[in-house]
Amino acid sequence: MKVLIFGATGMVGQGVLRECLLAPDVESVVAIGRNPTGQQHPKLRDLVHRNMYDYGDVESQLQGFDACFFCLGVSSVGMDAERYRHLTYDITLAAAATLARLNPQMVFVYVTGAGTDSSEQGRVRWARVKGKTENDLLKLPFRAAYMFRPGAIQPLHGVRSKTAWVQAIYVAAAPLLSWLSRVAPKYVTTTEQMGRAMISVARDGYPKPVLESEDINRL
Ligand SMILES: NC(=O)c1ccc[n+]([C@@H]2O[C@H](COP(=O)([O-])OP(=O)(O)OC[C@H]3O[C@@H](n4cnc5c(N)ncnc54)[C@H](OP(=O)(O)O)[C@@H]3O)[C@@H](O)[C@H]2O)c1
After folding, report:
1. Nearest to 144 by CA among 86, 174, 99, 193
2. Helix or strand holding residue 72 (H, E)
3. 204 neighbors 144 (Cβ within 8 angstroms)
4. Is 195 close to ligand 1, i.e. is its CB under 6 Å away?
5. The 107-111 sheet, strands edge to edge
6. What is the mean pLDDT of each run of 10 residues along the chain (219 residues)?
7. C-alpha angle 116/121/127, rounded to 5°?
């Protein structure tokens, strides 16, 4: 498979990139983002692109992919509603609409989160925005699209969050997360498992389009 990753510099994306580079059935990876990954690997190429709302000048480099793993995303904490929507819905749909047009055979995987509101009507703002993003992604003409809704994610293999306060929480909570992943695996997954599950759904599909932690851990 030829794989395109958004957000490969982030916590989820670093883990997904690692698994793609290790997987024998992933032939090549392009990591697109405003910053390079800083990693060197024979299978990896960085595509630095500043404007994540417009892909006109890089369209020729966005064709021929079998899968896109969209791990770019921000926390809504402390962010005004319009900015959160712009960085969540607008960025994701701009990229996905371009990719669906250029790669109709692509499998698109989007990272949302546990509690995402598919009704788009609930009281929690971030959950409504993620719900609308998921719903509109599922309408695009990809070969298939899967929405990953992890709860807590244990970072493995040196993976770090780009968001300082999230990283601080993960460091403080590491022993708790490790214990929870053993006693309540339904609510916790790992960066390694996220990557493996994305590769699995891109290759073999999955019976339903929305995957919770339990589904992710099963793959
Ligand atoms: N971490 C968790 O525990 C967790 C749990 C459930 C769901 N999620 C979801 O998973 C997704 C990824 O989270 P994460 O923890 O990996 O976040 P993270 O470590 O903060 O990384 C965010 C990624 O998005 C990119 N990004 C952010 N804003 C951008 C912008 N304006 N333009 C271009 N790129 C931008 C960052 O690129 P730069 O390197 O350029 O900053 C980075 O690659 C989010 O949607 C989040 O809601 C995370």
Report:
1. 99
2. none
3. no
4. no
5. 44-48, 28-33, 2-6, 67-70, 107-111, 144-149, 210-212
6. 97 97 98 97 98 96 98 92 97 98 97 96 96 98 98 90 86 87 86 97 98 95
7. 25
CB 153 within 8 A of CB 138: no
Q: Considering the entire predicted model, what is its pTM?
A: 0.96
Pocket test for ligand 1, best of 79, 161, 162, 187 (most atoms within 8 A of CB): 162
- Residue 47 CA to ligand 1 centre (angstroms): 17
Q: 91: how many CB neighbours lie within 10 A of its CB?
A: 20
The contacts of residue 87 (CB under 8 Å, 6+ apart) are: 73, 74, 79
Among 5, 6, 11, which is best to mutate for testing ligand 1, by the most ligand atoms less than 8 A from CB? 11
